[in-house]
Amino acid sequence: MTKDDIAAKDRQRSGTNRRRFLMASASTAAVPAFARGAPSETTPTSAGGAARAPVDIALTINGHERRLAVDSRTSLLDLLRERAGLTGTKKGCDHGQCGACTVLLDGRRVLSCLTLAVAAQGRAVTTIEGLAKNGELHPMQQAFIDHDAFQCGYCTPGQIMSAVACVNEGHAETEADIREYMSGNLCRCAAYPNIVAAVMQARPVMKTASRE
Amino acid sequence: MRPFTYERVSDPATAAQAAGARAEPASYLAGGTTLVDLMKLDVMQPQRLIDINALHDTDQGRIALRPHGLRLGALVRMAEAADHADIQREYPLIAQSLQLAASPQLRNMASLGGNVLQRTRCTYFRDVSYAACNKRHPGSGCAALAGVNRMHAVLGTSEHCIATYPGDFAQALIALDAGVDLIGPDGPRTIAFAKLHRQPGDRPDQETTLRPGELIVSFAVPAGPWTRRSLYLKVRDRQSYEFALASAAVALDFEANAVREARIALGGVATAPWRAREAEAALRGRIVDDQATIEAAEAAFAGAQGYGHNDFKIELGKRTLRRALRQAAAMEI
Q: How large is the average pLDDT for residues B270-293?
């Protein structure tokens, strides 16, 4: 996908997007009047200089190669949500404690909130938006629906990404294993029993699918 | 987060040269699970990050099991070592100490070199709104001494700092007499793992003996007759994904029914990776029965001091060690 494609997608969404509306309201409220409209890149800072220069990176997101210039401080999570428009990956604690931001990096589950975007150079990211194929839900997504494995749903994208990796790692053979190897994903609604049931359902389906 | 410059290196010597080349405070970036977290909190403020993740594709990313010992490259991820079948069989203590730490996602990210350098979870250290923290600002005091210190240390503390060393893997390394290979701007050197960390004393901000710009390259764990009969027992507030309240790393070698050699380290209770040599001495030549484990546990915690909320850790630590010793003695190998 090119930069223009992304910009076009951004424009497409901007009309009706609740999140964008909330963001706009919040920034109006939070930014003092004198600073409004000043581009953040020019905000004076004592550090200044090269540390502020954007870094060019290229990475693959859900099979599409992307090239972006990012502030070196950008987390992979913020890149996905704010730059790539992929808001399925959630920001929970932003400190590596809750698992809501779990994505696959070169097929292994990681926390995107503690991954610097610059360190994802050349790597392949899979997010919740990249799981469904040809309009068909991934077996793990279907299993979460079948077992009502969520209430509020905020932790769900992270749970599903983690569950997919859990099965692929071979760590979903027993219910006890699933509980242990899903312990990095907290669910404040405590849908844990249903999450375990969903992973149990999806495991054989995923294995059959991978053999086909 | 404060701005920083970012650079990537692909071999250890270049990394060390890069770190030594400029005066600004630099940090190596591996998994980032401690560093990025603490940069967001403004606890760590490096002006340069040197990304060493490319070293994972070199010798620093390899695990080598040889008759005389185990070599672990510093960029090996925690999960890679924890899931390694040969390590699980030959060095169960090492595999378990990694397996019982953090979460699957964090274990996929965190490097072994970074893991041993992870910073304390002391809430007063992590929260910069507390002015008093001798780790962050030498001479400013310690808010934990009179604060909520349930998670804090009872061994190796000082009047300047009681922050717990949070790691598990380091307890396995110190118990098994591991060595650490380093490279710095002035070249390579090898030190005993036991010499890597410092107790807080009057300089809690100086946590290791690493010289400026020095990088951990690998760990070497010598094989011993005790390495197969070894385990890590971790006691915590919840069953998974939690730091230790108390833990014990234990390795035993028997002659007939008596202990010939014991290797013991304690986690969750001390300010640094903690070898319990007094407990090892108390076990030597003994049959592992109640009396022997009680004496070993008493010896291990003879110098312990509680600070109020964490008084329970002294008894919990003793019982954790006793259980670990019984389990190790009962292992079928």
A: 98
Low-confidence winner among A120-129, A183-192, A202-211, B77-86 (lowest mean pLDDT): A202-211
Residues of A in contact with B3 (CB under 8 A): 45, 47-48, 51-52, 71-73
Using the predicted structure, report yes or no on whether residue A19 has a pLDDT greater than 80: no
Same domain, A78 and A15: yes
- Residue ranges of the domains in chain B? 5-54, 230-330
Beta bridge partners of B325: none
Architecture of domain B5-54: 2-Layer Sandwich (3.30)
Q: Name the more confident of B211 and A35.
A: B211
Question: Mind listing the pLDDT tens digit for each residue in B237-257?
Answer: 999 999 999 999 999 999 999
Q: How far apart are the C-alpha atoms of A192 and A189, rounded to whole Å?
A: 8
Query: Across all residues in chain A, what is the average pLDDT?
Result: 84
B29 and A119 in contact by Cβ < 8 A?
yes
Nearest to A116 by CA among A156, A65, A57: A57
Instruction: Identify the pLDDT of residue B23.
Output: 83
- B72 in Cβ contact with B52 (< 8 Å): no
- The reported pLDDT for the residue numbered A133 is 94
pLDDT of residue B171: 98
Note the pLDDT tens digit of each residue in A56-111. Answer: 999 999 999 999 999 999 999 999 999 999 999 999 999 999 999 999 999 999 99
Look at B241 and A183 and tell me if their CB atoms are within 8 Å: yes
Q: Which CATH superfamily is domain B230-330 in?
A: CO dehydrogenase flavoprotein, C-terminal domain (3.30.390.50)
Q: Give the structural domain span for A99.
A: 3-23+54-130
Facing B4 at nearest CB: one of A72, A95, A119: A72
Beta bridge partners of B28: B50
Cβ–Cβ contact A77 with B under 8 A: no
Whether B3 sits inside 8 A of A165 (CB atoms) is no
Pairs across A and B, CB distance < 8 A: 90
Tell whether A16 and A62 lie within a shared domain. Answer: yes
Residue A92 lies in a domain: yes
A115 in the same domain as A147 = no
Domain boundary among A92, A108, A130: A130
Nearest to B312 by CA among B150, B165, B120: B150
Which residue of A lies nearest to B53 if distances are taken between CA atoms?
Answer: A119
Cα distances from B292 to residues A146, B227, B259, in angstroms, run 55, 21, 10
Domain boundary (A68, A99, A130) is at A130
The contact set of B with A (CB < 8 A) is 1-6, 8, 29, 31-33, 36-37, 40-41, 47, 49, 51, 53, 79, 83, 102-106, 108-109, 239-241
Residue B100 clears pLDDT 80, i.e. is over it? yes
- The burial class, CB within 10 Å (0-12 / 13-18 / 19+), for B267 is buried
Give the separation between CA B4 and CA A46, rounded to whole angstroms: 12
A183 contacts B103? CB cut-off 8 A = yes
